[in-house]
Amino acid sequence: MSISSxxxxxxxxxxxxxxxxxxxxxxxxxxxxxxRIKTLSYIQSFYHPHHRTTKNWLNTHRITPADLHEAxxxxxxxxxxxxxxxxxxxxxxxxxQAQQAQQGQQGPGAKEMARAWMGVVREWEVITSSASxxxxxxxxxxxxxxxxxxxxxxxxxxxxxxxLTSPTTTTTTTTTSSSTIVTAEVVEPAxxxxxxxxxxxxxxxxxxxxxxxxxxxxxxxxxxxxxxxLLDMFVKIDGKIKRGVVGREVKELEGIARRGLGRxxxxxxxxxxxxx
Length: 276
What we know:
This protein is 64% helix and 7% strand. The chain is mainly alpha-helical. A hairpin with a 4-residue loop joins β3 and β4. The longest helix is centred in the C-terminal third of the chain and has 50 residues, at 224-273. The two termini are 23 Å apart.
């Protein structure tokens, strides 16, 4: 009697980007965003305390909280801090949009949000790339302090939509006749930068970012040339998030599943060897 099993799903399906053309830019942006939202939500489900014990990784190995804790405890602190910084920066964009809506002001359109989002992820990518290189040289000491200083620089910005406004920062606002200057400096997370907590929050914020961008796009389609411009920029933004967040987390979870499957196979083989 044959036993049927769920079909195997390749992890590459989570990190691949849909092929696109410029025939209908707005629909393509929507398709890419929906795919990324599904992937982010899928990864998030393994870190969520109410769901992670009930799911198998791509129909293979069931990842337990113990497996997850063992793996995340070995993640370099700079990656967790980098995730925290990205989440706070993206969160500030969402907060700015919400504040303007509450005050009845005209919020940023899709183009403005795309530019601000691109600025955040581009600078974050540069900072975290140098931080990763530093991890290879040292885990503590001057290298760690240098990483923190670079992370803080992302929030010490003047006249930028990416300026951080949060209870976890020190913020100074100066108003002149022509502009308002906001400077902010990030401080250490109050919860001790636990990786599971940080990645759970970051994924939630990224889902909100993609959702908000789709909403803005639908209300601010613009000309065909503007849509093409937005598509090109959005593909670049999504690519950076895919490499810096999605790809890393998929690799991490896939590694946990592979090690777990290896233990199961070795246990099964040991059991067969012990049969008379």
